[in-house]
Amino acid sequence: MRSSLRWGMVLVAICLFVSFTMQVSAEPWWKRQTSSDSGNNGGSNGGGNSTNTAAIQMTTPAVTQGKALFKIGSKVTFGWKYQTTPIIKPQALNILSLASTKTWYTIAQNISASATSFEWNTADQKNPPLVMADYTLYITDERGKDAPATAGRLGIFNGLVFSMYLPQSYTPLDEYTCATCYSDGSFPFVPIAMTFAVTAITVISFSFFMI
């Protein structure tokens, strides 16, 4: 009898606890769990590729071939393709370069967004003029180089580094002067005299230590 009464009291206590829990919570715990799982799944599915920006890949010159070297005054061809297609198509493309001297150069501005190459005549670059340095190529959409990364839009490309050099002017052979050469049969007295002097000092010093 006492045992039955004890179990009855335990059962009543459990029922009261469950009833109190359901009243405190506006939503049962099993429904909360389901809602939470659904929200997480929806967030994962909604993220997808929409958080990624579209990218450009260089084809000319190929980045895998190492640093390209171009002569100032020559024509340079840049080629590229879309590695991933932007959801929001760009209205135009801008091509710039940043020298290691921290100077910006505008190569092309507002060219067709469907273009996949551009020929740059470096001889036309006057203000500011090109200098011998390393350059980083930038390709952006119409928003420019300072545009933030936005999902579905074209990201800024800056993955190509190239060098520019300026060749020295041609000097005819009859006008060339060699600073370290001897002409007209002149005898190189000074270098030979210095050689003999060093040899004599070495021999005298060695003889002194041998005595």
TrEMBL record:
Region described as Disordered: 32-53
Domain DUF7137: 53-180
TM helices/strands, residue ranges: 187-209
Signal peptide: 1-26
Tree of life domain: Eukaryota
Record keywords, A-Z: Membrane, Signal, Transmembrane, Transmembrane helix
InterPro entries registered for this protein in UniProt: DUF7137
The name this protein goes by in its record: 6692_t:CDS:1
